[in-house]
Design brief:
It is built from three helices and four strands, in the order H-E-E-H-E-E-H. By secondary structure, the protein is of the alpha+beta class. The longest helix has 52 residues.
Length: 160
């Protein structure tokens, strides 16, 4: 059998170190992109969950006010009569705050900075930017049946 001369290619039996490093680097970049996308989706789902919980707390607060004549001090005041289970903190760990004034209830909590502006497309959400996180709030008003009837009657008369 002839020995290969200097400069001639020998048959390969494996991968070179440079090829292995390149493959590991490519896999690492792809994995970091997938994890970033996953994190974004999880944060968006948590934000949606927070907004839904805030809307439920707001409605329960209105019901509480209608029956008790005063606003609840915290979400724990709402269970078990007005909410099945007391939801006191958001999926991000912030506490829900109830602020009842006149004929409306505002529920607030803190979420990571920039998350609500980037991902939430709803119209009920108010966002106040802050240093440690953004304060988001949902406001619901008491339904005044008397004014609703008047508006309906006016519309009906104008259409005739």
């Amino acid at each position: 059998m002839l020995e290969p001369r200097l400069g001639q290619e020998r048959s390969k039996k494996g991968y070179s170190l440079l090829e292995v490093i390149a493959v590991v680097a490519i896999v690492g970049v792809l994995l970091s992109m997938v994890l970033a996308s996953y994190r974004t989706r999880v944060d968006k789902a948590r934000l949606e969950e927070s907004v839904n919980e805030m809307m439920s707390i707001a409605q329960a607060s209105l019901d509480f006010y209608n029956s008790q004549g005063y606003w609840p001090m915290s979400p724990s005041d709402l269970s078990p009569t007005y909410m099945y289970e007391a939801v006191t903190s958001s999926p991000f760990g912030g506490k829900y705050q109830i602020n009842g004034l006149n004929n409306m209830a505002t529920i607030s909590t803190i979420v990571p900075s920039g998350l609500a502006q980037n991902y939430y497309q709803g119209t009920l959400l108010q966002i106040l930017p802050g240093a440690s996180g953004d304060t988001i709030s949902v406001t619901q008003r008491l339904h005044n049946e008397f004014s609703g009837r008047l508006e309906y009657e006016k519309k009906y008369t104008y259409q005739q």
